[in-house]
Amino acid sequence: MSLINDDGKVHGGRILKRVVLPIIGIILVIGIIWWGVGMLSQPARVLERTFDADNMIANYEWFKQTHQDYLATQNQIVIAKNKCTQFKSDAGDRNTWSFEDKTEYSRLNSVVQGLENHVLSLVSTYNARSAMMNRNLFKSKDLPYKLGEGE
């Protein structure tokens, strides 16, 4: 069976069936095999990225640094609250406060609130990363699993 008709013209249907469709089929088979090999290599890539030396060090350092930031911010909150208490004590009866006294007290309370919000952010990020299997592997055993619980 020839690709050329009896009258000397190329038969389009025969070219499609004998040449183009087999080429498309081969390309599809190769694509499916390539995709399958890629899927099979995914776990190896995850392990490679997780146990990369730079990743291990970065995660270890991040947990250590964030825990120290958390402790320092907790101390800053205590100091800021003490300053609020001291200011109230030194300023006397609140009814006699000047505009500047009220503004300063408001500023001191804003500092406390900002520090408390920062601690919440540190805690949520630390706890989320601590729950991730590919990150908590590198957390030092002397650090708590979660922040904000019993500390």
- Estimate the mean pLDDT confidence: 86
Largest sheet: none
Unreliable stretches: none
Helicity, as a percent range:
over 70%
Tally of individual helices: 5
Total beta strands: 0
Number of structural domains? 2
* N- and C-termini, Cα separation: 85 Å
Strand content: under 5%
Would you tell me the structural class of the helices and strands?
mainly alpha
Order of helices and strands: HHHHH
Gyration radius from CA atoms, angstroms: 34 Å
Please outline what is shown here.
By secondary structure, the protein is mainly alpha-helical. The protein folds into two domains: 1-40; 53-136.
Description:
By secondary structure, the protein is mainly α. It folds into two domains: 1-40; 53-136. Helices cover 75% and strands 0% of the residues. The chain contains five helices and no strands. It has helices at 12-40, 42-50, 53-91, 99-131, 133-136. Helix 3 packs antiparallel against helix 4.
